[in-house]
Amino acid sequence: MKTCYLVGIGMGNPDTLTLAGQKAIAAAGQIVGAARMLAAFPDHPGARKALIRAEDIAKAVSDFPGDTAVLLSGDVGFYSGAAKLHALLKDVEVEAIPGISSLSYFCARLHRSYQDVHVVSVHGREANVVGEIQSHKETFLLTGSNFTAAAVCQALTAAGLGKLEVSVGQRLSYPEERIVRGEAEALVDETFDDLAVMLVDNPAPLAWRCGAPSLWDSQLHRGKVPMTKEAVRTLAVARLEVAPAHTVWDVGAGTGSVSCALAMAAYQGQVYAVEREVDAVALIEENRAAFGLSNLHVVLGEAPKALLALPAPDRVFVGGSGGEMEEIFRAALTKNPAVRICLTAVSLESLTQGLRVFEGLGLQNVDVTQLTAAQAKKLGSYHMMLGQNPVYILSGEGQP
Predict the structure, then answer these.
(1) pLDDT band at 221 (very low <50, low <70, confident <90, very high)
(2) Distance between CA atoms of residues 38 and 36, nearest Å
(3) What is the separation, in whole angstroms, between the first and last Cα of the chain?
(4) pLDDT above 50 for 211
(5) Can you give the pLDDT at residue 210?
(6) Can you give 107-137 as a three-state secondary structure string?
(7) Tetrapyrrole methylase domain: from which residue to which, for each copy (predicted)?
(8) What pLDDT, on a 0 to 100 scale, did the predictor assign at position 162?
(9) How does strand 165-170 pair with strand 178-183?
(10) How far, in Å, are 28, 343, 369 from residue 44 at the CA level?
(11) Is residue 165 domain-shared with residue 304, that is, in the same domain?
């Protein structure tokens, strides 16, 4: 049976190619890969094909009668095309040969270890970059044309993190290699290659990123806008079962207290706070800024119309519906039939309407909880328990 070698060729400079990689390439009758990778081996005597798409590479391997070496940048196990190729290669023995990754090379150039470094890629994919950096002491970034190194520095500066130390590397291992270090705010106007790498140091990651969000009423700006209280907020977020990468809507966001808690829970995702009152929107912006929640987006508008342009939600919290409860549910279910929705109600009429909408639209696993909370308040030399109005928390989910 013929062999296909998946070879991690390192940074591109032949000096970073391992001895095992050299032997595999020399033994192959055909080399395949991006044109710039093939150019590093001008003296290879065999056939060569400049291909990028995994399907085209797999066909070239299948059509060639002998052994093939597929040249892959960096390491085959680090954001590599090797994973997809493994699934496509049939009737051929596959041997993966690791190489030097951009992470290991860059950290070596910086004289840094990398066992505790958090890795994020925005090369051809979406990520809440600022949130990831806020969450970790050391973050390594693979940038791309959609989010360049300069754009990352701009986003950090806009989020109040402009003083963080940043290291940027481009054209690593080549004679024109460039490594720049400085504070993020000092690098916003620098020009970097699209495929640069970054290492960002954050000596004080936000504590709530490390576990379940804890958000006290006393921490929030509230003005005269109604606010979902702490106990209700905590249970509502728990009922939604928010995952870190979820997209979440908060409809009728008020002060943004629930929006902030959701953004803390979905720190790798995006949260959209929809509110029709201008004064309330200003409060949401204040609370967003106070917690550095770059993944919280404030939308001024009235639901359901304001929901039409939003991305499909994984979770929806409805704190206020303005009489449009069923239409709000329909808007969410249209974008994601499996969406999970949580609703709070303080009146029996709202409770009745909520149950009717949950059942009428066929939501599953509907749960209703009545929460009556009391909080201690010091009066003179005594602590008195002051009760809050009972609140109904309804939750359920659509069908995939």
Answers:
(1) low
(2) 6
(3) 43
(4) no
(5) 44
(6) HHHCCCCCCCCEEEECCCCCCCHHHHHHHCC
(7) 4-187
(8) 93
(9) antiparallel
(10) 9, 65, 70
(11) no
